[in-house]
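Quick one, tokens below. Sequence please?
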């Protein structure tokens, strides 16, 4: 059986074997180089494309022949007019055909091609044919564009880079510097700095550090250094610079590239951090709180003096780093409790506990909050435990006092005879204490829904309005003197209240007028009764005073007569008899006054 003819390998019988090989090689070259050749016959008005053109345009070679119109339709619409005009200029003026444009493949992909061609002319210089090639340069074009973009980005980065980027000659002369660097050295224009020695800006005391940095770079060694500079306008700064060598195509070091940043704030922060660390150490060792850390084997890593003192007391020896924090001589319960805490923390749990105990040092009751936080390395593996024991003894005592005080206050407010109300300036209630029910019979809900003036006695309304207006003019926390007024009880009776009002309108927690009042009805009634009794007693005393005067005058006269010593015994006895009669008369008068007074004073 004859082998089937392979048209791609064996040329047709109509073509010479050598020509077919040349075409095959040409086809391979076109495929490898993404090249196609084309030919336009102006006489026959035909267009011929090689297989390479069809492959580039992603077309089937069997689509031949194609015409000029179809050929130009493959050109990108935005480049089509320019391509047509270039062809016309080539044919009419004789310029060389050299064109870059975009083509659109049958799949819609946009490619860039570079085309070169020669014109074959007749005896009269008329164009007969034009034969050319074009190459798909999309990858080169994209690579070029990427390179341009990279260069543009690099240039933009250098210009916008906040760090100083500079190039220095081997002699230490500044060759190039970005805007950030010029700003750091306080140069208003590049000419002020370029061509100058960099060493002139460096602190004399730090010059050795900069020189070492520059020398290392010239020897091909990348290194970093810190030094201070003085700007052209006198500003002092701390700088941190990293320098690398720059080489030419032969690998020879021609200059030094360095990136320098202003670390003045960082240095200041580091100095502050050192001061803070020293202060923290002083604070840590000066507190009664216990601070310590341990490794996964329960060995002490670090601790403040307060913890070392406690641990040393419990151990009976001086405590130090490396000692086990598990203390056996304080009993099994103590040992197991703290071992359990440490195990929880070393397992990854962050937690706190509350401890109440008698201090082994002072013998007094202590309250402490103890915090446990796992220590992790960069791989998030637990390597130890940080512990903090805060003394909250005073806080707990104050808290218990506060709770007790709050309970007493609540009991006084809820069960006291005084009513506490918070009122707006218009008399509306914002709060009423539960004792309102005992004093006036209203429930808290009823009282909250009423205005103060709803149950005031009409005669007292003007005065209360005046007091509410007056109290809000007082400074915050000041009160008006107490005042009595009448309020209608829930049962309809009128009760006298003694009220003291305080301005707390601007107090965020109150925001109103605090009215503290209580029932004084009985006291008002008693005072009124006493005043009435006093008036009656005054009248009795006034009317009886002249009755008392007569026997009293007789008594005084007889006593004076006896005192003279001139009376005979008989006269003296008669005088004594008169004295007794006057005394009896006075006694009867006094008894009469007492009886009248008893009728006035109600027991």
């Amino acid at each position: 059986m004859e082998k089937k003819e392979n048209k791609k390998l064996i040329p047709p019988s109509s073509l010479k074997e050598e020509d077919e090989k040349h075409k095959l090689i040409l086809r391979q070259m076109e495929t490898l180089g993404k090249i196609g050749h084309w030919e336009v016959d102006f006489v026959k008005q035909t267009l011929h494309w090689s297989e390479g053109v069809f492959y580039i345009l992603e077309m089937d070679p069997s689509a031949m022949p194609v015409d000029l119109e179809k050929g130009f339709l493959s050109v990108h619409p935005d480049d089509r007019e320019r391509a047509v005009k270039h062809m016309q200029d080539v044919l009419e003026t004789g310029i060389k055909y050299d064109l870059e444009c975009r083509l659109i493949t049958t799949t819609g992909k946009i490619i860039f091609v570079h085309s070169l061609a020669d014109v074959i002319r007749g005896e009269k210089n008329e164009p007969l044919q034009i034969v050319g090639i074009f190459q798909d340069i999309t990858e080169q074009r994209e690579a070029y564009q990427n390179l341009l973009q990279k260069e543009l980005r690099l240039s933009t980065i250098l210009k916008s880079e906040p760090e100083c980027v500079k190039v220095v000659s081997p002699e230490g002369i500044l060759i190039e510097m970005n805007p950030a660097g010029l700003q750091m050295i306080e140069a208003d224009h590049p000419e002020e700095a370029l061509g100058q020695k960099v060493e002139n800006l460096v602190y004399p005391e730090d010059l050795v550090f900069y020189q070492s940095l520059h020398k290392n770079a010239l020897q091909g060694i990348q290194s970093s250094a810190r030094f201070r500079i003085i700007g052209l306008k006198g500003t002092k700064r701390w700088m941190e610079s990293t320098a690398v060598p720059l080489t030419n195509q032969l690998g020879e070091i021609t200059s030094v590239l360095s990136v320098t940043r202003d670390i003045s704030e960082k240095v200041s922060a580091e100095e502050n951090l050192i001061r803070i660390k020293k202060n923290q150490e002083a604070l840590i060792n000066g507190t009664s709180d216990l601070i310590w850390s341990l490794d996964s084997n329960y060995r002490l890593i670090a601790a403040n003096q307060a913890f070392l003192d406690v641990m040393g007391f419990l151990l009976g020896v001086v405590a130090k780093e490396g000692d086990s924090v598990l203390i056996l001589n304080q009993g099994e319960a103590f040992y197991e409790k703290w071992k359990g805490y440490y195990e929880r923390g070393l397992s990854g749990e962050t937690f706190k506990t509350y401890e109440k105990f008698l201090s082994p040092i002072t013998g007094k009751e202590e309250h402490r909050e103890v915090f446990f936080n796992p220590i992790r390395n960069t791989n998030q593996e637990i390597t130890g435990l940080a512990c903090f024991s805060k003394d909250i003894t005073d806080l707990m005592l104050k808290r218990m006092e506060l709770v007790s005080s709050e309970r007493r206050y609540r009991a006084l407010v809820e069960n006291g005879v005084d009513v506490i109300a918070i009122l707006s300036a218009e008399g509306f209630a914002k709060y009423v204490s539960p004792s309102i029910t005992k004093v006036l019979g209203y429930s808290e809900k009823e009282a909250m829904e009423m205005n103060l003036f709803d149950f005031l006695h009409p005669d007292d309304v003007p005065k209360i309005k005046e007091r509410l207006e007056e109290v809000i003019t007082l400074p915050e926390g000041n009160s008006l003197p107490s005042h009595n007024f009448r309020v209608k009880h829930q049962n309809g009776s009128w009760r006298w209240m003694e009220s003291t009002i305080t301005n707390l309108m601007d107090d965020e927690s109150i925001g109103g007028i605090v009215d503290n009042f209580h029932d004084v009805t009985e006291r008002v009634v008693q005072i009124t009764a006493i005043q009435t009794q006093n008036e009656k007693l005054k009248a009795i005393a006034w009317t009886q005073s002249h009755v008392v005067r007569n026997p009293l005058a007789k008594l005084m006269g007889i006593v004076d007569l006896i005192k003279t010593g001139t009376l005979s015994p008989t006269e003296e006895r008669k005088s004594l008899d008169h004295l007794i009669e006057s005394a009896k008369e006075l006694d009867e008068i006094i008894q009469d006054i007492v009886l009248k007074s008893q009728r006035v004073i109600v027991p």
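Confidence is low (pLDDT under 50) at residues 1-15. The CA atoms of residues 497 and 519 lie 5 Å apart.
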